[in-house]
Structures are given as C-alpha cells and as structure tokens.
Design brief:
The chain has 177 residues and is mostly helical. The chain contains 8 helices and 5 strands, in the order αβαβαβαβαβααα. The chain has one domain: Glycogen Phosphorylase B (Rossmann fold).
C-alpha cells in the first residue's frame, strides 16, 4: 500500500519478491495498491518484467475503497521505503493482525520488532525476511497466528486514537509553547 514514488522503492520490493518466491505461479502473490500503481505505469511494468515476475503472481490497484479488507487478507505487509516519518500503513496493517517487515527507516523500529527490519535498498535481506515468514506460515501456523495477534496487541497498547491524541496533546502543551 504505497503510491508510485521513488521514496517508496518498489524496485527493491519487486527484486526481493522475485528472489523470495518459488517460481510456481499462484503459490505467492504480491498485491500493490496506491496512486500510480497500474499496468499503464511503464516504469513499474519494466521493473516487473526485469524481475521475471509472472502476471499470475502480481496484482496492481490504483486505489481501493477499504484497505482494511486487503490488510486482512494479506499474510505479510512489506514496507520497502528509502525514507519515512511515521508509517501509518504499518500500524493499519498490524491492527488487522497482519505481520509486517520493513526497511529500517523513520520510526519503523519503534513500531515493529527489530528482527523484522533490514537496511533500505537491500533486496537480499528483504528477501530473506520474506522467506522467513513464508517458511513460518507453511510450517508452523500456530506460531504465525501468535505473531499476528501480537502485532494487533502492539497497536492496542500503543497506537489507539486515545493514546495518540493524548501524546499529541502532551507534546503540544509541554514542548510547543
């Protein structure tokens, strides 16, 4: 879930996905959603072809009405950005019990486990993280589901509207005078 933008680094994501999947169509699919994410995007199409990603393994959506439905059906959210502030998309995915992996940018390390991070633009490390969770999903569903529930609990303990609003007001009242 990211608009077409060099900062979002779809190139690294697609390289990592290509390296991590078994080349059998349909076993793993990548869903990309965001402004400019269409088959008419020549730059995106070129990267897909360069990485030999089958058209059966990738779905492109310019926009969707309810992201929560997509997060809920995904087994893994991958953020491959070169830079971020506070990536709301991770918290949104985690609230839907979706496991997240990411490049270590912005506030990501405050949101998800440091074992689920890699350096920006490192498609090899991002691919290894993908493989780690593909393997866990296929070999130990119980542990995988525990991790999904753990993610939701992180959101409930740290990122509810009440908690975020309270933190904002605290900052406003104590630091921005």
């Amino acid at each position: 879930m990211a608009r077409w933008d060099p900062l979002k680094d779809h190139d690294t994501l697609l390289k990592a996905f290509s390296k991590s999947i078994n080349k059998q169509p349909g076993e793993s699919v990548l869903i990309l959603i965001g402004k400019g994410i269409t088959s008419n995007n020549n730059d995106l199409s070129k990267i897909i072809v360069q990485n030999k990603i089958s058209e059966n393994s990738i779905f492109l959506f310019d926009s969707v009405e309810n992201l929560n439905e997509y997060f809920s059906m995904c087994d893994l959210k991958v953020l491959s950005s070169r830079g971020e502030g506070f990536p709301n998309v991770l918290v949104e995915a985690m609230s839907c019990e979706t496991i997240c992996i990411s490049t270590d940018v912005g506030d990501v390390s405050d949101i998800i486990n440091k074992d689920d991070l890699c350096e920006p633009t490192d498609s090899n490390s991002l691919s290894l993280l993908m493989k780690k969770y593909f393997k866990l999903y296929n070999s130990d569903k119980s542990t995988y589901q525990e991790k999904e529930i753990y993610n939701r609990n992180i959101v409930l303990e740290n990122y509810t509207l009440e908690i975020v609003a309270s933190s904002y007001l605290y900052c406003w009242n104590n630091f921005l005078k």
